[in-house]
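Q: What would this complex look like in 3D?
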Amino acid sequence: MKIDRLVLSEMDKQYRTNLVNSLPGIRGANLIGTINSITQQTNVAIFNSVTHIGANPPLMGFIMRPVSVQRDTYIHIKQNESFTINQVHENIYHQAHQTSARYSVSEFEATGLTPEFTDKIKAPYVKESKIKMGLRFVEELHIKSNETILIIGEIEEIILEDKLLSESGIIQLEDAKAIGVSGLESYYRLLKLEELPYAKP
Amino acid sequence: MKIDRLVLSEMDKQYRTNLVNSLPGIRGANLIGTINSITQQTNVAIFNSVTHIGANPPLMGFIMRPVSVQRDTYIHIKQNESFTINQVHENIYHQAHQTSARYSVSEFEATGLTPEFTDKIKAPYVKESKIKMGLRFVEELHIKSNETILIIGEIEEIILEDKLLSESGIIQLEDAKAIGVSGLESYYRLLKLEELPYAKP
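A: Here is my prediction, written as structure tokens for the whole assembly.
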């Protein structure tokens, strides 16, 4: 099946959203935790766009939708330059998904996830997550084509279970019961195929 | 285990690269196809950073490392504003991985993947892939923190097998034998858990 630009633009909106969201394949599901500096209200929301930007300095990025509607995550990050990224696993993906609903209270309270703090980072971690990063906001890039924003943070702290790390520093995602998400709704379990060596001609 | 900024900065380089690369969890594996306008040499390379930027207009992005060393993909995209994104599946991930080696000939030739052309897009598709997009380059954003570049393209054409689409437009990744990659080397098979409904309070 070939779908060109015209067919795509005339597609039912929900159908197009589903299709385009699932085109890039599987993505990590991560909970981003923030805190309001003034009210101290915590916030946690699921994102499927967390991407590795670089290892040294250690940088992660994620895409925010336009801030024309209120975006607590964005506001909090700008307030105190702090956020956490917490990987979702099989035992919490229902709660993680539920953070995308619009609540008037903290999504921690609404979904039963537990905020957890360290002395390095103002923003709350998700206690139930097994692979967590605390980050300091360093940069935002405004994408002109659709007014989304790439937020970039530098890792200040990593918290993870020792047994999930291989001898060479590779996190074992199947052992962590990590899941993947396609689009905004399809959740997948991961089964390790293999680690391939650095490619040479 | 807690790893702070100082420990991370003093870590063995390869260990840190492995750790930081695998922190965001699973990612899609995609082959990006380009062509040199002058020599007509084709190029195909694996990327794990392809991210959905928006559905309307339909936009995809990916991260390029610094262009200080020669980056054919970047040069070709700037030459003719055209590239393709081709999802990797279980039957081609060894070949896909091998595209990351440095060849003097086209990676198509070197790895046995087959270039395929349509009249909509100059850049070559990967014939063996089941889920493909042809894109027109629209924007590049320079990330100051580490000189990487976010390349954004608008989808001009989608090519995929009909049977992979659900009634609501969601691509069935397990049926496509789509795989995921963690870091630069760990490949995973996907098993569908479920599709969750739009979250409401």
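A: To summarize the key features: The longest strand of chain B covers residues 131-142. The mean pLDDT of chain B is 95.
Q: Very helpful, thank you.
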